[in-house]
Amino acid sequence: MAQTVFLEAINQAIQEEMRRDESVFILGEDIRRAIYGATADLLSEFGEKRVLDTPLSENGFFGAAIGASLVGMRPVVETLTSFMWVAMDQLISQAAKMRYMFGGQATLPVVFRASMFYGAGSAAHHSDRSYPMFMNMPGIKIIVPSNPADMKGLLKTAIRDDDPTIVFEDGTLFGMRGEVPDNSELPGEELLVPFGEARTVREGTDCTIVAIGGAVNHSIAAADQLAAEGISVEVIDPRTLVPLDKKSILESVEKTGRLVIADPAHKVCSAASEIASIVSEEGFWSLQAPIQKVASEQVHIPYTPSLEKHVYPDAPKIIAAVRRTLES
Amino acid sequence: MEIDRDILLLMLRRMWMIRNFELKVMEVHSAGEFSGAAHPYIGEEAVAVGACAALEDTDYITGNHRSHGHPIAKGGRVDKAMAELYGRVDGYCKGKGGSMHLADYSIGILGESGILGSSVPVAVGAALAAHIRGDKFVSMAFFGDGASNQGALHESMNLASVWNLPVIFLCENNQYAVTTSYAETVAVDHVSDRASAYNMPGMLVDGQDAIAMYEATSAAVKRARAGEGPTLIEGLTYRFEEHSLGLGRVARGAYRDEAEIAEWRKRDPLDILEKTLISQGIATREECDAINAETVEEVEKATEFARNSPFPEPEDLFEDMWANPIPLP
Ligand SMILES: Cc1ncc(C[n+]2csc(CCOP(=O)(O)OP(=O)(O)O)c2C)c(N)n1
Ligand SMILES: [Mg+2]
Asked: Is residue B320 domain-resident?
């Protein structure tokens, strides 16, 4: 299997889908010269009509992508999570609501690829991890890949899916290397990861960690350290938050009796809170200890590294949370 | 410009259809047959009808809260529209959209938006698809003078211009946004003056004159199909009724002069079109009256259709969320 960098996995997914289907096109700011890396070399292969550099008008070009999707195109929009705020009207009033509001007449196969550049001194305006806000709004599928193979496989699935999808691309993983199978090694010669199927990253018996995006690697590191002390941790990566594979989470908690949720987003009304609420409602009798959320502190992202490093979940915080579940 | 007789008569029919539809809506709404907001298009019929007469079924439109006129002008069905207002399963959106969200994807009506300005980028997107694929269709976005102040309008006009897209921005300037006059909120004399900032033609048209609207829009459609890019058209018009049904009961104080309303009512778009057709020997008084009567009848049937259609079942609540369905949380 080939070792592939996360950003290359994004590039491969887009390139393969653009080759396969002429209705796929990409648009965003500075994508022809690929300043964020994911769109490298697409202009030369697919030309200016299918690789569009947009004006700095997120609300306008998000809406244009939505409109194009309604009439048979499959647009892939590149943006930063933090720039979605100025396009919220298009995402919510149009993308999320159109199909239902028009009684099923509208079909919107549009993908928004939103990078999350947190943890790198980008400060409050460029460090958002906003997937919980979109989970609260019905109508948008939400994926948060944690490694190159899932990144590629989920993005390809998103491009083929007929509903609006936001792909939250975790910037802390952009340089991550991982095994991505060559298409020729795969059944059907395609890497397609289905929505709504969690991945068991590592099996264990004492405590379950449900980890999202960049928190998966921290959870693996935590599990390694705890294993050295004889504590066996299971790590589950939901991969998609809408739809959410609650069955896999509940089954794991049934086995371990303990749950820690590691989530790089803010902790209030979050993916972590939703998972905690599902397990309290539907898995309560499996629990042997209170659920622990390890999510971002409820403050804005400070610029200075000396403060920012305290905001997000990391291995020490996750280890401490696992220990709390084992105390009782 | 020589206009085909069929088109002129079709315009008259659609204008009467809108007028009689709206009169019926006002009647049954005040009788309490359904509730919710509804924004009558009476007085403005020539704008949408003239504009849509220049389009084909394969062209696209998006619209706003004042939403009954646009679909009827584009050839939509009054029975499905009325059933939607009644919240019934046979409505255009199976009762999920209501008055402000009519849509008919079979004839390019991509949907009306209750959030103002929001559907304009969507129309630009349909045009973008035409541009990428080399298709010949055009798209048209209806919006009001009030919505012309939305950022979405400016982003859309700039985008359409730099990409040279086949879009027509169609401003229905009825001179008020609810109670606020456009003179107080639009920095230029006319919304169409803004076109120059986006390097596209801007046309100010008499919105009470269906033929003028048809001619202006035809020119814009021709430009768009020829790959010459977008146009901004402003139809200057007036709404004869209240902003929305029932609002008169809550608004404190008048915001429009009685004299001003009376003055504009003298310029009824139906009178204007009928007079032209009769004076030019295109139709007789009797033919015009017959068209009116036929549309009254059709609206009557549509209302019966709506009344007889069932309400959706509770399980329909969960339908139409997704094209590729997922389990409920
Ligand atoms: C984004 C947004 N802001 C405010 C409103 C409330 N609202 C409904 S209609 C209206 C006035 C619209 O004026 P205009 O665009 O001129 O259309 P008209 O009603 O005159 O046809 C307002 C402010 C809304 N629906 N959407
Ligand atoms: Mg107005």
From this structure: no
